[in-house]
Design goal:
- About 50% of the residues are buried.
- The protein folds into 2 domains: about 130 residues, Nucleotidyltransferase, domain 5, CATH 3.30.420.40; about 170 residues, 2-Layer Sandwich (Nucleotidyltransferase, domain 5).
- Helix content is about 45%, strand content about 20%.
- The chain has a 5-stranded mixed sheet, with helices on both faces.
- The chain is α/β, with parallel strands linked by helices and about 325 residues long.
- It is built from 11 helices and 10 strands.
- Bound molecules: 5'-O-[(R)-(carboxyoxy)(hydroxy)phosphoryl]adenosine and zinc ion.
Length: about 325
């Protein structure tokens, strides 16, 4: 089965062609970082306009790169939520149009499901597994019992982990998006230099919280009357260590209490080098398996959408043209 996957939920326009749920024949992303960079965060109206400009050439490019034409496709998958409603509508409307014109069935896909399944693009993982989904919009923990069978365990009570990275990067004038820059800067710093607070979530809950940490960094910067420029790397490393602690601890506790011996990371923050290093070391010390997709499959991409769509299409699902975008879709 040949599936075209289309992703426009936030600020990346992405399209991919996937053969039989395994072979990625093309996986193209048109990033809007340069457009949103000056604002230090995604401007929804600009994001929608950028998607409108880029989506058709990107679809052409993905088909060309894969060496296939519209007639070769068996189905199209498109993200229908959650995300920015204007951005979602661009992808969904374009896919409805080409599905009708090319007479190819389409399915609307849950963006969170696509992230959680992305690992299967690279390796087979047994069920059940704990999926830690950490991105700019989400910090969620699920027990994945099988395709289409997700048990919610916990989520962030305030900011998402990636949002905390982006906001701290903005405070430190490091540019947008902040995750990758802080990840790199932190390599030159001491993660124990500054004791930033870790949120305490009561026992029995697998929730996360990052707003206290964000405020602590803001206060630290404000209190440095003589400037903090010379401490940039230590601040980045200490902030990152606190984020990683607050992600690793509940995940390992869930593995112990909920059961299962597999952990899968997903979402843009799963590209973080320190999170990958710490999760691997600490999980393996407890005889747990850890799997993470290559960084381009952690951040938003069309291949993961095609993969989730492939699963639903093989289940016989077909969506009709009344399907709407759902900005608050849950899993
Ligand atoms: O999954 P994604 O591409 O989009 C959303 O669905 O949100 O994630 C984007 C987020 C941004 O907040 C970005 O700063 C963060 O992932 N990110 C990182 C790294 N690369 C991207 N955060 C920490 N370390 C990284 N290396
Ligand atoms: Zn995402």
């Amino acid at each position: 089965m040949l599936v075209l996957g289309v992703e426009t939920s936030c600020d990346d326009t992405a399209a991919a062609v996937l053969l039989d749920g395994r072979a990625v024949l093309a996986n193209l992303v048109s990033s809007q970082d340069a457009v949103h960079g000056p604002y230090g965060g995604v401007v929804p109206e600009l994001a929608s306009r950028q998607h409108v400009q880029h989506i058709l050439p990107l679809l052409d490019g993905a088909l060309h790169k894969a060496g296939v034409g519209p007639k070769d496709l068996d189905g199209i998958a498109v993200t229908r939520g959650p995300g920015l409603v204007g951005s979602l509508l661009v992808g969904l409307c374009v896919v409805k149009g080409i599905s009708y014109r090319w007479e190819i069935p389409y399915v609307g896909v849950n963006h969170l499901e696509a992230h959680v399944l992305a690992i299967f693009l690279e390796q087979a993982v047994g069920f059940p597994y704990l999926a830690l989904l950490v991105s700019g919009g989400h910090t969620l923990l699920y027990q994945v019992h099988g395709f289409g069978r997700y048990q919610y365990l916990g989520g962030t009570r305030d900011d998402a982990a990636g949002e905390a990275y982006d906001k701290v990067a903005k405070m430190m004038s490091l540019g947008y998006p902040g995750g990758k820059v802080i990840d790199q800067l932190a390599r030159q710093g001491d993660p124990r230099a500054i004791a930033f607070p870790r949120a305490r979530i009561k026992r029995g809950s697998y929730d996360f919280s990052f707003s206290g940490l964000k405020t602590a960094v803001w206060r630290y910067l404000k209190d440095r009357k003589d400037g903090w420029e010379s401490e940039r790397a230590d601040i980045a490393a200490s902030f990152q260590e606190a984020v990683v602690d607050m992600l690793v601890t509940p995940t390992l506790r869930a593995a112990r209490e909920v059961g299962g011996h597999r952990i899968v990371l997903a979402g843009g923050v799963a590209a973080n080098s320190r999170l990958r290093e710490r999760m691997k070391a600490e999980a393996e010390a407890r005889k747990l398996e850890v799997h993470f997709p290559a960084p381009p499959l952690c951040t938003d991409n069309g291949a993961m959408v095609a993969l989730a769509g492939h699963y639903w299409l093989t289940q016989g699902r077909r969506d009709d043209y009344r399907l709407n975008a759902d900005a608050d879709l849950t899993l």
